Amino acid sequence: MKHAYNGPPLLAGGYRIFFFAAALWAVVALVFWLFYLTGYASNFDTDMLQWHAHELVFGYGGAVVAGFALTAIPNWTGRAPVSGALLGALFLPWLVARIASLAVLAGYVDIATAALAETVFFIFFLGLATREVVAAQNARNYKIIVFFGLLVIAAAAGNLERAGVLDMGVAGWRAGLAALILLVCVIGGRIIPAFTGNWMRLQQMEKLPVPFGKFDAVCILITAAALGLFVDERDGTVMGGVAALAAGLNLMRMLRWRGWKTFSSPIVAVLHAPYLWVVVGFLLLALSAYGVVAQTAALHAWTIGGIGGMTLAVMSRASLGHAGLPLQDSPALSSIYLAINLAAAARVSAGIWLNWSPSLIELSGLLWCVAFLLFLVRFAPIYFRR
């Protein structure tokens, strides 16, 4: 359903303001992390490892999920997209949380300020998304609210931990990471075979991706179990076994989508590459449980390759589609996709070849920033025009 909107272009749709802000924050947060790692700014007034993990999982991840949900839900429900003052009201606490997080580094504000603002953002987002889905009375989409809810619960717990109310250690951001990976598996299982099938039909291919079925449901359940054990961390042996099973099942799942047939079209192939990084992440997690590789290799296969790759793929496709531009390959898009996958490869390698770790980490950080700067150069003009 269309509706008239004559306000600021950036508030015309969730994908505009949240995808723009997410890409910008992906660069800003990484730059501060690289400054810390390289010693150019080593006196930040907080635990920088926790800050780095939290800001990319909940800061970047939260913005992308909000932008995706507010863009996809109108397509699922037929309702008008959230825009204008209501969209701005949702974005404001996210922005306050990011500004406060930067101020924390210099000791200007207490972390509780950032924690409170971010918690308000996530609760507001979940309430708004739930309202839109329930108002359409389409029970098929109720399940996705549950998965959004898992991310919101993880964010609330993580913020209570960093505000000193709960003592959770790293479980807060680990739960947020687990929720994001689960969303990649659930939503990826919905859009990857659909978009791939559409492209294959245009190429007149006869054998198409296998749609969601009972096998996919079992795969999601095993994946959720492995992620739960990852968050809990109490039994590494069991976690390793379940993670290996999740890796195998997810590999079988993505092979059913026939991604190897899409190599001639980067804008389609890039949907499959992040899912492969999810598989690699589970495999590395299993190996790390038995001391074969560092667990950071698994974490960054998920965060850079899986989440970074999938979000860039989805953001670029959604931005082109809603701007009325053709979904076709271009050197700019190929460069974005190449940079993020090279960033993932470099960072995963840093967890395997430890002697080269510092240089590979810095290279990965630079490639991450290149990917998102290229995204901003390509898509920011779309977000600011009517």
Question: How would you characterize this protein structure?
Answer:
The chain is mainly α. The protein folds into two domains: 9-169, no CATH class; 213-386, no CATH class. It is built from twelve helices and no strands. The mean pLDDT is 92.
Which percent bin holds the helix content? over 70%
Q: Could you state the order of secondary-structure elements as H and E?
A: HHHHHHHHHHHH
Helix count equals 12
| Percentage of β-strand residues | under 5%
Helix/strand/pairing category: mainly alpha
* Spatial separation of the terminal alpha carbons: 18 Å
Mean pLDDT: 92
* Rg over alpha carbons: 20 Å
The general outline is globular
Tally of distinct domains: 2
Low-confidence stretches: none
Number of strands: 0
- Main sheet summary: none
Q: How do the strands and helices of this protein lay out in sequence?
A:
Blueprint: H1 14-37, H2 48-77, H3 84-105, H4 111-136, H5 142-162, H6 171-202, H7 214-232, H8 236-255, H9 266-289, H10 295-322, H11 331-350, H12 357-383
